[in-house]
């Protein structure tokens, strides 16, 4: 099977860059000296807000807890059959021998302004997490909106950064950048200890307001029935998602290969739409897919045979753990069957 490690990372970057482009200047809450002293000791305080868009950024300790929960959630909801969690933050830190030990982290934020973005309806915070004591580690970049943290993130790359900053730079290099120092505001430093056993024991719970998750799942199923009702043979895998997500991810594998130019895999890149400046109400799911870069032609050094393409399709289908998917379906001759 074609290696997917870098393909999946690239797709995350593609989804994120399609959602938002550009950032505004920092928006900090004016604080008196007394308030400053209070917030230095009370890291659970709110460090930045935007009432118009329902933004409320918690302090370092609270965000650390949110981050740890997300990292364990991501590992628990991985749909790849990969015990090492290679396509996750756990996997990245494992490769750098950073599990089971205390990691010092620095936290930064920048408010991305809807007035400077062509494709967004509301502001968000771009959160950057750096590792000052680990020269091997780069930084993570997250999106934080009125509904919380998004599951789409970057590692060693950020589409909102200045073109003067190179990709895959270390945390130390990023923090020394004058552009970064000017544009981003520190909201604390803390430590994070991640354990593989805790990740494996993590229990996934419903993080949505009562009844909303069911609404979204119902809308996804309607989209799938409409989109693929005339297909002969394919499988659809939808990854779990968080309240802060504005897009779905997953895979559609075509098992009905009739020509060597048929695409065995497309990525799900559908939009979850919430109405209101504060994303108060779920409206609908707008379904769309995108050809996988693994099979776009540029990745192959040779002209594949029909037999090879069919083999790739089977391998893609078998590489996914349907039990980890939020939804998984097999469509055969127009009939839809659940896989879990």
Describe the structure.
This protein is of the alpha+beta class. The chain has helices spanning 5-19, 33-41, 60-76, 89-95, 171-176, 178-183, 196-201, 212-228, 306-318; strands at residues 46-50, 55-58, 102-112, 124-130, 140-145, 148-155, 185-193, 233-238, 250-254, 265-268, 271-275, 281-286, 289-291, 327-332, 335-338. The longest helix has 17 residues, at 60-76. The chain starts with a helix and ends with a strand. 34% of the residues are buried. Residues 1-43 have low confidence and may be disordered.
Task: Throw out a few tags for this protein.
single chain, 340 residues, alpha+beta, six-stranded antiparallel beta sheet, five-stranded antiparallel beta sheet, 28% helix, globular
- What's the helix count? 9
Counting DSSP E segments of at least 2 residues, the number of strands comes to 15
Order of helices and strands: HHEEHHEEEEHHEHHEEEEEEHEE
Strand content: 25-35%
Helix amount, in percent?
A: 25-40%
Order of strands in the sheet with the most strands?
A: 13-10-9-8-14-15
Structural class: alpha+beta
Low-confidence stretches: 1-43
**Average pLDDT across residues?**
84
Could you give a short account of the major beta sheet? 6 strands, antiparallel
How far apart the termini lie comes to: 24 Å
Shape: globular
> Taking Cα atoms only, what radius of gyration do you get, to the nearest Å?
21 Å
């Amino acid at each position: 099977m074609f290696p997917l490690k870098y393909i999946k990372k690239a797709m995350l970057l593609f989804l994120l860059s399609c959602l938002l482009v550009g950032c505004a200047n920092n928006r900090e809450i004016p604080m008196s000296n007394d308030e400053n002293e209070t917030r230095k000791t009370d890291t659970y305080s709110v460090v930045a807000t935007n009432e118009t868009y329902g933004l409320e950024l918690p302090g370092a300790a609270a965000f650390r807890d949110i981050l740890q929960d997300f990292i364990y959630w991501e590992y628990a909801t991985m749909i790849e059959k990969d015990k090492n969690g290679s396509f996750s933050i756990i996997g990245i830190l494992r490769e750098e021998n950073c599990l089971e030990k205390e990691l010092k982290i620095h936290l930064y934020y920048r408010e991305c302004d809807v007035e400077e973005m062509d494709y967004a309806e509301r502001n968000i915070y771009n959160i950057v997490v750096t590792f000052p004591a680990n020269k091997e580690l780069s930084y993570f970049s997250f999106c934080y909106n009125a509904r919380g943290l998004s599951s789409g993130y970057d590692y060693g790359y950020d589409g909102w950064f200045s073109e003067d900053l190179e990709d895959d730079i270390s945390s130390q290099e990023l923090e020394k950048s004058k552009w970064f120092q000017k544009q981003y505001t520190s909201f604390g430093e803390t430590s994070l200890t991640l354990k593989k056993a805790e990740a494996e024991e993590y229990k996934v719970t419903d993080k949505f307001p009562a009844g909303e998750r069911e609404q979204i799942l119902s809308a996804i199923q309607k989209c799938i029935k409409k989109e693929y009702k005339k297909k002969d043979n394919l499988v659809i895998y939808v990854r779990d998602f968080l309240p802060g997500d504005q897009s779905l991810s997953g895979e559609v594998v075509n098992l009905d290969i009739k020509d060597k130019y048929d695409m065995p895999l497309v990525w799900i890149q559908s939009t979850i739409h919430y109405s209101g400046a504060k994303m108060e109400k779920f409206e609908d799911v707008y379904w769309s897919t995108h050809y996988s870069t693994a099979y776009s032609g540029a990745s192959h050094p040779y002209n594949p045979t029909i037999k090879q393409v069919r083999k790739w399709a089977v391998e893609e289908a078998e590489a996914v753990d349907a039990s980890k998917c939020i939804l998984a379906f097999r469509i055969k001759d127009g009939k839809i069957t659940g896989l879990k």
